[in-house]
Amino acid sequence: MTAIWRAGLAAFSALIVLQACGQQTGQTRDVSDADREYQHVLMEALLDAAPGSVIEIPAGVFVIERGLSLANVDGVTIRGAGMDETILSFAEQRAGAEGLLVTSANNFTIEDLAIEDSIGDALKITGSENVIIRRVRTEWTRGVSTDNGAYGIYPVLTTNVLIEESVAIGASDAGIYVGQSDNIVVRNNRAEYNVAGIEIENSMDADVYGNVATNNTGGILVFNMPNLPRPGHGTRVFDNDVYENNTRNFGHAGTPVANVPAGTGILVNSNDDVEIFNNRVARNRTANVIISSLHSAGFSELGVESDFDPYPERIHIHGNTFEGGGNNPDGMDLQALRIALFGPTGRIPDVLWDGYVDEAKMVDGSLPDDLRLCVSGAEVLNADGPGGYGNPRIVTAEHACSHPPRAAVELPF
User: Fold this and answer.
1) pLDDT single digits (tens) 123-172
2) Which of 89, 151, 197, 360 is the most exposed place for a label (fewest CB within 10 A)?
3) What's the confidence (pLDDT) of residue 1?
4) Looking at residues 42-51, what average pLDDT do you find?
5) Which residues share a beta bridge with 178?
6) Which residues 6+ apart lie within 8 Å of 41 measured at CB?
7) In this predicted structure, what is the pLDDT of residue 14?
8) What span, in angstroms and rounded, lies between the C-alpha atoms of 168 and 190?
9) Residue-wise over 219-252: b if at least 16 C-beta within 10 A, else e?
10) 296: which strand partners?
11) Pairing between strand 151-156 and 121-126?
């Protein structure tokens, strides 16, 4: 077993859910010459934007052939007529690495529009404070494909971030991704048919709640990557619906998400202070929840910062509702594990843990109470990574503990 991965809204209206799910296989649209020419109007508006500008984009399907950008202007709002009314189509994009790139733009808001079929990332926002992304849809309409752009909604190196009531479909890495950022709220969104539905990576203080993550390879991921200059910790994942994330992994070979097994509900890797509670997690065929370290994730070839802590610690899983899952894990090794421990019709328990702990922090053979993996309301399987996966076993009683609840994230707007 070389790596455990390899071994292997409620607040959204039904109308939005049906509209989002109905656009999976691409579509042909009649686009007028005027709609093609609108891209020049929009490019000029972004180029000429002054602090406090509001850029209104009307309803329509607008062909955009070059990546759009906004840089070094504060207080800008970009507003469409609705995520299914104002559509920026990059299906004919010939230049640019993103659909829309926003750089060093504080107090930025984007709302009520869609970005479709960009060559690379759909919406990337970097180096900005006080960012609101509201009712934005990012989608690759041709369906699941490694040729799709990597990220849908992608704020990175940002502070005070709100992503709400948005939809992300078809990203070959993550549909909704927040990286190396601080003070984050991701709520009431839908992520579907991405490799990773929602991902919080190397970020501090995040609340992820009220979301639907389904039909992804992995539903909700909380990562610390070893090759980035800053670690993250402190995430609450609660009141989400995370079900049937069983889509085959179509990530690019060599990228971290390419190792995520199909059928992963919630995955925590090398991250600390994570509270997972009051979620409804169902029918994720590898495992409903996976807790893993760098040692089993297969990321070390990317490079490891000298002070990187590879062990997930102070993880608290409680109050969740689990249904099914674990019955058909991705990979022959996990299939063999399932059959050996639970029989041909059995299933892997809801919490699958690779078993790695930091021995340097152990006291009298155990981790201190404030660093432990604590689980209530679910069985825990220790896969015995440190022992070469030679003695996997149920360890539910050993993790019958709790941690103080984390405080809610508060945004300044």
Assistant:
1) 999 999 999 999 999 999 999 999 999 999 999 999 999 999 999 999 99
2) 360
3) 35
4) 97
5) 200
6) none
7) 31
8) 6
9) bbbbbbbbebeebbbbbbbbbbbbbbbbbebbbe
10) none
11) parallel
Summarised one tens digit per residue, pLDDT across range 186-221 is 999 999 999 999 999 999 999 999 999 999 999 999
Contact 311, 302 (CB under 8 A): no
283: left (phi over 0), alpha (psi -120 to 50) or beta: left
